[in-house]
Amino acid sequence: MMKVKDASAAPAYSAAVQRPPLPEHLPESDGKPMAKTDVHREQMIALLDALTEYFRYDPRIYVTGNIFLHYLDDAGERRSVSPDIMVVRGIEKKLRRYYKLEAEGKAPDLVVELMSTSTKVEDLGNKRVIYAGMGVREYFLFDPTGEALNGQLRGFRLENGDFMPMMGSRLHSEILGLDLVLENGRLRLQNSKTRERLRTHQEAEADRRAAEAAAARELRARQAAEARNAALQDELTRLREELARLQKAKA
Fold first, then answer.
1. In what order do the strands lie in the sheet with 61-64?
2. Which one of 28, 136, 139, 186 counts the least CB within 10 Å of its CB?
3. Beta bridge partners of 97
4. HEC secondary structure over the chain
5. Would strands 186-191 and 69-72 be described as parallel, antiparallel, or unpaired?
6. ∠ CA 157-158-159 to the nearest 5 degrees?
7. Pairing status of strand 110-114 against strand 138-142
8. With a threshold of 0.90, does the pTM exceed it?
9. How far, in Å, CA of 173 to CA of 139, rounded?
């Protein structure tokens, strides 16, 4: 006679099978405007553009700004902050929707915040602690309008887990190998040795077009000079031949 298995002895598959965890949803926007004012926005775009142009040929330097930087706090809770500008060395240069600290494996090397009166306390207080805690090596604050920060520009370098202020009106970034300076109330990046100002992509393209136009003018001028010289040589040859003919005729 066929034996019927006890149903109670069947393995409880529904209890044993574990579903994979759902992927973590990380926000990409908080609905706030990109910058506080037109002045802040233009300054941020100019700095990002200049840095992107400067490092355009290095595939292991990532320049970005105004995206969410997601990290875990000391309690393991998910937090986020959105630097105006950040530079990370040693990671792939590619488009990202956000920057997840533990996935990328390292903190930004440099952060620049464009300060306003409404963000002064946050930039000098909470963000300074956050960036130092995650290991940001250099932190710069710039006030485009001059209403929130005396002197408009401040810089900090990480030492023993805390940010120590940089001194002087010309602040040198070891991460960038460049100087941060004020020019007519604007923050500019300069070559530390030549003092030459970094160009934005638009300025660099304008310089290249001007150089190409100058080279084209020089080529046309050289070709015109060569044509004149050739014409003079032809005329000189004709005159010599005419002189020789006349002398022969006299003889």
1. 61-64, 85-89, 110-114, 138-142, 153-159, 162-165
2. 28
3. none
4. CCCCCCHHHCCCHHHHCCCCCCCCCCCCCCCCCCCCCHHHHHHHHHHHHHHHHHCCCCCCEEEECCCCEEEECCCCCEEEECCCEEEEECCCCCCCCCEEHHHHCCCCCEEEEECCCCCHHHHHCHHHHHHHHHCCCEEEEECCCCCCCCCCEEEEEEECCEEEECCCCCEEECCCCEEEEEECCEEEEEECCCCCECCCHHHHHHHHHHHHHHHHHHHHHHHHHHHHHHHHHHHHHHHHHHHHHHHHHHC
5. unpaired
6. 115
7. parallel
8. no
9. 9
Distance, in Å, from the CA atom of 88 to the CA atom of 79, rounded to the nearest integer, reads: 19
Calculate the CA 4 to chain-centre distance: 72
Cβ-based neighbours of 75, under 8 Å, separated by 6 or more: none
Distance CA(89)–CA(173), nearest Å, equals: 13
How does pLDDT run across 141-150, given as a tens digit for each residue?
A: 999 999 999 8
Query: Residue 43 is encoded by which pair of tokens?
Result: 């300054």
Measured from the Cβ of residue 126, the count of other Cβ atoms closer than 10 Å reads 11
Report the alpha-carbon distance of residue 48 to residue 67 in Å, rounded: 13
Please state whether 160 falls in left (phi above 0), alpha (psi between -120 and 50) or beta: left
What digits encode the pLDDT tens for the residues 187-224?
A: 999 999 999 998 877 777 787 787 888 888 888 988 98
112 close to 84: Cβ distance less than 8 angstroms:
yes
Q: Say how far apart CA 182 and CA 197 lie, in whole Å.
A: 11
Cα–Cα distances in angstroms (integers) from residue 82 to residues 33, 63, 85, 170, in the given order: 12, 14, 9, 26
